[in-house]
Design brief:
By secondary structure, this protein is mainly α. It has 9 helices and no strands. Helix 1 packs across helix 5 (about 130-150). The protein is globular.
C-alpha cells in the first residue's frame, strides 16, 4: 500500500530506534562482561535510545533514505566506547564484543517476525492489525540490514573488528590501517550501488532463515 510521509515516518521510527539501541547496548553489555566497563560507566549499557542517538546518523540519514525514492536504508548510532586493552583477552574478546551487536539485531528480527505473524493471524478487522504488520515488516528489514551491513569486513564495522581479531598480527595491523577511511569506503559503496549489490543476497538468505525457523 502507498503511505504518505507522516505514515512512513510513523511506521519506521520505532523499529529504527529499537534496532540501533539494541545493537549498541549489546556491545556495551558484552564489553562489561568481558572486562571493560567503559561503556557501562558512560551510561551506554541501556535500552534508552537517547543515550545512543546520533543526530545525523540516527535521525537525518535514515529519514532521508526513507523519504527518497529508491533509497537504500542506511544509518548509524554513536559508537559505544570500548577499551580493547581492558578486556580479559583483548584479541579473542574483541570478536565477541563486535559480534554482540549483529547478534542483537538477529534476535530483534526474530521478535519482529513473531509480531508480524501475530498481526497477520486472526486479527481481521482490528484497528491495529495493519499498522503492527507494517511496523513489524520494517523491524525485520532494518534489523537484517544492520546485521548484514555491520558484518562486512571493513573497519570500523563489527565485521572488520572480527576480522582483526582472527587474522595473524601482520595482516591484522594492515587491516587496522583501513579504519580511518572505513566510513568513506562505505559511503562510496552506497553511492555507486555496490553496497546494495553485496547486501541484498545476504539479506535474502537471512530473511529465508527467519522464515524457515518460524
Amino acid at each position: 500500500m502507498e503511505l504518505n510521509i507522516i505514515q512512513t515516518i510513523a511506521i519506521w521510527a520505532l523499529p529504527v530506534l529499537f534496532a540501533i539501541t539494541a545493537h549498541e547496548a549489546a556491545h556495551a553489555y558484552a564489553a562489561k562482561r568481558l572486562g571493560d566497563p567503559t561503556a557501562f560507566l558512560q551510561g551506554r549499557m541501556t535500552f534508552n535510545p537517547l543515550k545512543h542517538i546520533d543526530p545525523i546518523g540516527t535521525v537525518l540519514l535514515p529519514l532521508l533514505c526513507v523519504l527518497l525514492p529508491g533509497g537504500f536504508l542506511f544509518g548509524y548510532a554513536k559508537p559505544v566506547p570500548v577499551d580493547f586493552h581492558a578486556l580479559n583477552n583483548p584479541k579473542r574478546d574483541m570478536r565477541w564484543v563486535a559480534a554482540a551487536g549483529p547478534l542483537a539485531n538477529l534476535v530483534m528480527a526474530f521478535i519482529w517476525a513473531l509480531l508480524f505473524r501475530f498481526a497477520a493471524s486472526g486479527l481481521e478487522g482490528s484497528s491495529f492489525q495493519l499498522p503492527l504488520a507494517l511496523m513489524s515488516q520494517a523491524g525485520i528489514q532494518i534489523n537484517v540490514i544492520l546485521m548484514v551491513l555491520n558484518l562486512l569486513p571493513i573497519p570500523p564495522l563489527d565485521g572488520g573488528r572480527i576480522m582483526i581479531s582472527i587474522l595473524p598480527p601482520n595482516l591484522a595491523r594492515t587491516l587496522m590501517k583501513v579504519e580511518p577511511y572505513g566510513f568513506f569506503i562505505i559511503i562510496a559503496l552506497l553511492v555507486t550501488g555496490i553496497l546494495g549489490y553485496v547486501l541484498v543476497p545476504l539479506m535474502t538468505m537471512v530473511m529465508r532463515l527467519i522464515q524457515i525457523v518460524l
